[in-house]
Amino acid sequence: MKKIIYIFSILISIFSCASDSDDNISQITTTFNFTHSWDNTNVSNANFNTIQFKNENEENLSITKLRYLISKITFIKSSGEELVLDGYNLIDVTNNSKLTYSPVNTIPTGTYANVKFTFGFNNDDNYNNNYQDLNSASWNVPGILGGGYHFMQLEGKFIDNTATETGYAYHAIRAVDNSGATQVFQDTFFEVNLGEVEITNNATFNINMNIAEWFKSPNTWDLNALNNMLMPNFNAQVLIFENGQNVFSLESVSQ
């Protein structure tokens, strides 16, 4: 009898270890790698500070700064269940910093109906300036414009209609209208949907931002009219939001 109990205990131990091993194998890490382009031309900080790009409005321009915030990376199962990964990432192309982001959370292998992330912060996160690293990066929005944080800073120079090299600051924040007795806000963060993906192993998502799209569609951007003081400009922030819808694309998933 003791021998039978001993053998039974060994079998339980073996199956338990096997189960633990399967659990470990089924949990994978994800990495998000952000690249940048101007339509079909790759862009890095090596291309900055030289007027070499032409936007949809036929204006020649340079890029001197590009930083933007992504958050709320979410994996959605076919059942509709959402796995939201903790954290956010301030991508700084200017300084070649944080172009790759690996959330702390792991996710199970399987097929996901959609993977998405938020450009900027949603209203729950964009509150009270509680993120010390973003504060240190001077990422805050002034209280008169509603506080919270920037979503993007895109800056450079362009040749204006007097053939003069002029600076532009294409900054994205939550749209605010200060023209009345009380502030009126409109949400301008947006979700980027990467589509269905099957995850079988540790996965790297290669995501591209086409910078040219910020100036292209559906609103052809006129830098002569809209080049600075865009943060307090409610209508400009809505236009930026609309143009951002087709900026990001999933290039590939490496596993």
TrEMBL record:
Residues 1-18 form the signal peptide. Residues 30-227 form the Copper-binding protein MbnP-like domain. Keywords: Signal. It comes from the Bacteria. It holds the Pfam family MbnP. This is Copper-binding protein MbnP-like domain-containing protein.
